[in-house]
Amino acid sequence: QSVLTQPPSVSGAPGQRVTISCTGSSSNSGAGYDVHWYQQLPGTAPKLLIYGNTNRPSGVPDRFSGSKSGTSASLAIAGLQAEDEADYYCHSYDSRLSAYVFGTGTKVTVL
Amino acid sequence: EVQLVESGGGLVQPGRSLRLSCVASGFRFDDYAMHWARQVPGKGLEWVSGISWSGEAMGYADSVKGRFTISRDNGKNSLYLQMNTLRAEDTALYYCLRDGYCSSVKCHSGWFDPWGQGTLVTVSS
């Protein structure tokens, strides 16, 4: 079972803004470890979306933004588009487990 | 272009062994730590193992510790995962990952970029 909790699903109409939370604990995100985000389109490998809590790799639209505060991190998608339908995962390091950990994953549906 | 290509997956009986390989191209392989992660089809992601640039330090998820061994050959730009005593619950798509920031698995700050396309391991009798 994952130590990073995400909502199973979020949805929104095209153009709307949605946010995905990633809740950790004092041994991972709350201990200061960075949170990163990945997008997994159907049938493909995950792709880096946000690194170091807030940074976008080149090529990722600025509609995607990340934030972190305490034990929680969030991914926001502004101006939702049909192509954003995918699974999204957060990722960090856990010092109690001595392992990298992924969130439970969130399916984004564009209505 | 930075690329990771996995191979070696397949159908194997419980208790048997399998060795996965990953060939890297498009970047200086020995500058980066490397990792394996897995995903049961339709389910979430799980980090499996990581190795430092030199091969000196490794880390493993509790679920595979003592059964899986990660290694690398920097001269061949290759990463390996030796999987022994396989169980049905090891059935998954296995991805090869580059650490986007760290050269050591003791760094703990890195992200995973890029990911390979994955190789499917099915453990069944």
Please tell me about this protein's structure.
The complex is a heterodimer of chains A (111) and B (125). Chain A is mainly β. Helix content of chain A is 0%, strand content 44%. Chain A has no helices and nine strands. Chain A has strands at residues 9-12, 18-23, 36-40, 47-50, 64-69, 72-77, 86-94, 99-102, 106-110. In chain A, strands 1, 3, 4, 7, 8 and 9 form a six-stranded mixed β-sheet that branches. Chain A has a three-stranded antiparallel β-sheet with strand order 2-6-5, with no helix packed on it. In chain A, strand 5 (64-69) and strand 6 form a beta hairpin. The relative contact order of chain B is 0.31. Chain B has 125 residues and is mainly beta. Chain B has strands at residues 3-7, 10-12, 18-25, 34-39, 45-51, 58-60, 68-73, 78-83, 92-99, 112-115, 119-123. Chain B contains no helices and eleven strands. Helices cover 0% and strands 49% of the residues of chain B. Chain B starts with a strand and ends with a strand.
Question: Which characteristics define this entry?
Answer:
heterodimer; A: 111 residues; mainly beta; 6-stranded mixed beta sheet; 3-stranded antiparallel beta sheet; 9 strands; 44% strand; B: 125 residues; 7-stranded mixed beta sheet; 4-stranded antiparallel beta sheet; 49% strand
